[in-house]
Design brief:
- The complex is a heterodimer of chains A (374) and B (400).
- With 374 residues, chain A is an alpha+beta fold.
- Chain A has 3 domains: 113 residues, Butyryl-Coa Dehydrogenase, subunit A, domain 1 (Orthogonal Bundle); 106 residues, Butyryl-CoA Dehydrogenase, subunit A, domain 2, CATH 2.40.110; 143 residues, Butyryl-CoA Dehydrogenase, subunit A, domain 3, CATH 1.20.140.10.
- Chain A contains 11 helices and 10 strands.
- A 4-stranded mixed sheet of chain A has the order 1-4-5-8, covered by helices on one side. Chain A has a 4-stranded antiparallel sheet with strand order 2-3-7-6, with no helix packed on it. Chain A has a two-stranded antiparallel sheet with strand order 9-10.
- The two termini of chain A are 30 Å apart.
- Chain B is an alpha+beta fold and 400 residues long.
- Helices cover 44% and strands 14% of the residues of chain B.
- Classes of the chains: A alpha+beta (374), B alpha+beta (400).
């Protein structure tokens, strides 16, 4: 039993920490988030130079061979830095499906530029009606002699507006909610018939509504076997759920630290507000929730690394935890910061929004608790 | 990062598991299963059974007859003991005064007291709390005045758990009132309860049982040889003991066992009715407690792993008591809810039977669920209430 990071993980942790503290303060983050693209291409190049875009990919795929623990280490730090660069959308989601489903030629064409940081991609797995059911796919793909025709609508596609490549699950057989009969396609975003309405999300990230009107793609755009796309999709969603959970734990930790610090300095009635017992106990609860969340997070990451049979449950447990405890931590941090907590200019408000957004995606607390209850 | 046990640890687990499976006294196992309270002789017999295997001094160093186990081995042992539904070790001798004596006591005291603690020949109880003191332990008023080769003890101790069974009591008493801080001038004394002037009065607790007592001291003569360590340093020794108490009351392994048992119980259909597991509301509440408990289990493992590798436990260890008791109480509440109407019958004579007869009321230990629920409200109160724990975390971990 050993819960410490190994040398490589510790180096990775250290390098992300250094980057965040030296080059990614809150003002810089806000500038990137508010820019037209919604993130910084320069920062993305730095991510690539430091090797971070290669972390979760195997060495054969040109990657670093990192697993769930390495992903966790990075996302914890990204949470603390409130990073808006689309690591989740591009690397974990789009890259995750490609590495699992693509053949060698497809990988060279689409995965390599992701690993090297040269291309932005997105996984269009949400539909306006699907909520958290990944198998709820109404977008259709119909085969003919020359390839496929895709029609349908995808919603809240993270990084969808900036992506040059869209990974699209489409129904090729079965009922709307069947796991079987989902086929994955790689579609260039500028293909005829693809229309995108990009927008900013409340947490300072970017997403898009995307329509597919009789979009033609060749058969070599099909990733994996026809009708068998769900497995790669599902495994990738698990990775992403673990990743955002780690990000959320990072946010909870820094919000707790910042709130404790603030309460030591903020004077009211001639004393620091941190001397009030009612606030002390609430901050102790925040601290307790952070410790409990970190425990569930490392548990999920370790079980995922061992490909344990209970990995899915462990991931649901941590996502439920950050959904509930994260909401509480966010609300408490805002409350204890008082009027400052609801000010745009203070980072606390933006941490709170990101935590809220994380609960809304990849299955909220209720959804994961329901999975655990069954 | 890994959460696997080493080969040696796995072998150790197998050994412990096999002995609990094959040799554990059947009648005690049966009482536990039915929720029948254990009597004094059951508890003594269980601890002597442990001692015969060298397991009584779980936390004790080998030189005093303890196991000398590593933190991970202790964790494995606690888990296996819970999984066997074995009773908890009565903590006052083996977990509390024993460690204080071998850490702070003199050679004569070690030889005189430790063997009888290990063999459970002498039953100890704890004399810390006093009427009106609550969690403010340092406000204690019991006095021990030096008179030649004796202290004369006067005062009252309360909430003395299982004091009705006890032969000896360890107390904190004030030996000096002229002190700068209330925590000074307190001494740690060992008192034979058969000494004239010691009287034990029962306190009936919420569920109707006799579990705790008031112990009165009226001009009780305690030889100076029964002072542990230095006079006036009792607070320090007592704190060490309390820290130990706090990790024990997280009770993660027992909670794990109880949650698993409850989940199993929900799948059982009684007389053709739909099993409880079809009640989504209940199952979601159960799942939420399971998540909290899994988190606590890993929080405890993180503490263990740190201690195992020679580091001090991190700040995460400070939350074990609060979370542990919150979870225990949440589980008690679920058992209560699961029992439905059968949480109501209070059939005292049933609790001393050793086998369910035709007139047995309720299924298994159902009718015990409410008693346990009521009784364990104590968990967030004793050992320093959870609010006191939060004050401690606030001050020492958050620096507020």
């Amino acid at each position: 039993m050993d819960f410490s990071l190994n040398e490589v993980q510790a180096m990775l942790d250290d390098s992300v920490e250094k980057f965040i503290s030296n080059e990614y303060d809150f003002e810089t983050r806000q500038k990137h988030s508010g820019s037209e693209q919604g993130f910084s291409s320069e920062v993305w190049r730095t991510f690539a130079e430091l090797g971070w875009t290669a972390v979760p990919f195997s060495e054969e795929d040109g990657g670093f061979g990192g697993g769930p623990v390495e992903l966790m280490v990075m996302m914890l730090r990204f949470g603390k830095g409130l990073v808006v660069e689309p690591y989740l959308a591009n690397i974990v989601l789009a890259g995750g499906v490609l590495r699992r489903a693509a053949d060698a030629g497809q990988k060279e064409r689409w995965l390599t530029p992701i690993v090297t940081g040269e291309m932005q991609a997105a996984l269009a797995f949400v539909e306006p009606q699907s909520r958290y059911d990944v198998s709820n796919v109404a977008t259709t793909a119909t085969a003919d002699d020359d390839g496929w025709t895709l029609s349908g609508a995808k919603g809240v596609v993270l990084n969808g507006g900036n992506a040059a490549l869209l990974i699209v699950p489409a129904r090729t057989s079965g009922q709307q909610c069947d796991e079987d009969g989902i086929t994955l396609f790689a579609v260039a975003a500028d293909t005829k018939g693809v229309s995108r309405s990009p927008y900013a999300t409340v947490d300072g990230h970017q997403a898009a509504e995307i329509r597919f009107d009789n979009v033609r793609v060749a058969d070599d755009a099909r990733l994996g076997e026809t009708g068998k796309g769900y497995a790669a999709l599902d495994a990738t969603i698990d990775d992403a759920t673990l990743a955002v959970s780690a990000e959320a734990v990072g946010i909870m930790q820094i919000m707790t630290d910042k709130t404790v610090e603030y309460s030591k300095n903020r004077m009211q009635f001639g004393v620091p507000i941190g001397s009030f017992q009612t606030l002390q106990h609430r901050m102790v609860d925040m601290f307790t929730d952070c410790e409990q969340s970190y425990s569930l997070l490392i548990r999920a990451a370790m079980l995922a690394s061992q490909e344990s049979a209970v990995t899915k449950r462990a991931i649901s447990a941590i996502k439920y935890q950050v959904g509930t405890a994260g909401r509480k931590a966010g609300q408490e941090a805002v409350q204890i910061h008082g009027g400052m907590g609801v000010s745009w200019d203070l980072d606390i408000a933006h941490y709170f929004k990101r935590l809220t957004a994380i609960d809304q995606m990849l299955g909220n607390a209720d959804w994961h608790l329901d999975r655990l209850a069954g | 990062m890994n959460v696997t046990f080493s080969e040696a640890e796995l072998a150790f687990r197998e050994e412990i598991r096999a002995i609990f499976r094959d040799d554990f006294p059947e009648d005690i196992r049966r009482k536990r299963e039915l929720g029948v309270p254990l009597e004094r002789q059951d508890m003594v017999r269980f601890q002597q059974w442990l001692n015969e295997r060298g397991w009584a001094g779980v936390n004790w160093p080998e030189e005093y007859g303890g196991t000398g186990w590593s933190p991970v081995q202790k964790y494995i042992f606690a888990t296996e003991m819970a999984e066997a539904d074995a009773p908890a070790i009565v903590p006052f001798g083996l977990s509390m005064v024993g460690p204080v004596i071998y850490t702070f006591g003199n050679e004569e005291q070690k030889q005189r007291f430790l063997p009888d603690i290990l063999t459970s020949k002498v039953w100890w109880c704890q004399g810390y709390s006093e009427p009106g003191a609550g969690s403010d332990l340092a406000s204690l008023k019991t006095r021990a005045d030096l008179a030649g080769d004796h202290y004369i003890v006067n005062g009252t101790k309360t909430w003395t758990t299982l004091g009705q069974h006890a032969d000896w009591i360890f107390i904190l008493a004030r030996t000096n009132t002229d002190v700068a801080r209330r925590q000074e001038g307190i001494s740690f004394l060992l008192v034979d309860m058969s000494t004239p002037g010691v009287t034990v009065k029962p306190i009936i607790t919420i569920e109707g049982d006799l579990e705790v007592n008031e112990v009165h001291f009226e001009d009780v003569k305690v030889p100076v040889q029964n002072l542990v360590g230095e006079e006036g340093k009792g607070w320090t020794y007592g704190k060490v003991l309390l820290q130990h108490e706090r990790t024990n009351i997280a009770a993660v392994s027992i909670s794990n066992f109880r949650v698993r048992k409850l989940r199993k119980q929900t799948t059982k259909s009684i007389r053709g009715a739909a099993p409880l597991c079809e009640d989504r509301n209940f199952m979601r509440k159960l799942a939420a407690v399971e998540v909290d408990l899994k988190a606590l289990e890993f929080t405890e493992l993180r503490t263990l792993a740190a201690v195992q590798s020679g580091k001090a436990p991190g700040p995460e260890s400070s939350i074990l008591k609060v979370k542990g008791t919150e979870i225990q109480q949440a589980i008690d509440t679920l058992y209560l809810e699961a029992a439905g109407y059968y949480a109501l019958p209070w059939v005292q004579e049933q609790y001393v039977l050793d086998a369910p007869g035709d007139d047995w009321v309720g299924e298994g230990a159902e009718t015990q669920s409410s008693l346990r629920y009521f009784n364990f409200r104590k968990a967030s109160i004793y050992g320093g209430s959870n609010e006191i724990q939060k004050n401690i975390i606030s001050k020492h971990v958050l620096g507020l």
